[in-house]
Request: fold
Amino acid sequence: MGNLLDYLAWRGDLSLDRVPFGPVDGLVLSVLSYVHFDGPAQGEESVPLGEAAEEYLTLPPARRGRFRCETDLALLRALADSPRFARLGLCRCADRFVPKEETQFAALTVLLDDGSAFLAFRGTDGTLVGWKEDFNLSFMDVVPAQLEAAGYIQDFAASFPGQLRLGGHSKGGNLAAAGGALSAVKVRDRIASVWSFDGPGLNPYLLARPGYQELRTRLRSFVPRSSVVGLLLAHEEPHTVVDSDQQGLFQHDPYSWQVLGPDFVRLEEVDAGSRLIDRTLKNWLAGLTGAQRETVADTLYELLSSGDVKTVKEALEPRHLAGALRAALDADPQDLLTVAGSLARLAGAALRAL
Reply:
């Protein structure tokens, strides 16, 4: 068994006309969306993916766009060396980050050899804004990034006549599903598949929309055996469980997912720990009103973002946590009580789930 990089070493010399585009390819391109490409790849005209990867890798580190982790650089090298991917067209690399609107959205498009296009949506990037928007999914009918995803799909479809494939990892999977569901009927009819890789589900508002119901048979979720993120909110579509060489929450890392030959190593179901966490979180959220969820998310965000803090990693550093505690002294006491009460409910839900 191996991971995505092994897959590219094993299958990278097989063109798409020899071995059709599949879910592992979809995960590869979904992970690619975490790389911040600048230059020509942002336009409507496509550039060869291999050339874009080579250009990115040859830039001095200080001039490169951000990426999720160091392994992303190894992925770029493998894609540049892979006949299966290197000649595919990369275009429309979009990136919108608006803290005031609590919006973090990014996507890219890869033109496939079969005349279709794969639209990959980026997951949460580690910023506090991205984290806050994830929480907003629990109480808002539609978050700004989902509307951005629908607009991205609509704009691309207006100038592209072929079939569309949508996908993304983590929140990117949610954006692929929501963006497809919110698209116009004529666009939805051209969506061949939607793949969500350990992405949160949708809320009741989106699940009830005709767009989701129409796409449900073309939507599939892939989750690791100890999935947490991919079981959040609600899913009505079928899911595939994938083996991972990591434990617990670290299985959310797509590079840990196990591949053998052309496909994921598939399992029958998620493990007992994943089912326990799923029950706990669903019971907890069910015990909170929409207003309480909003208060908890807003209050925690305001406390953690006090001072010059941009990322979750920074916010959890001791010096910044001390600043958050000082900010709590000026917070609305009723809001703090709501947060404390919700955390107590979470503890109670965990005990009941055992």
Observations:
- The chain has a mean pLDDT of 85.
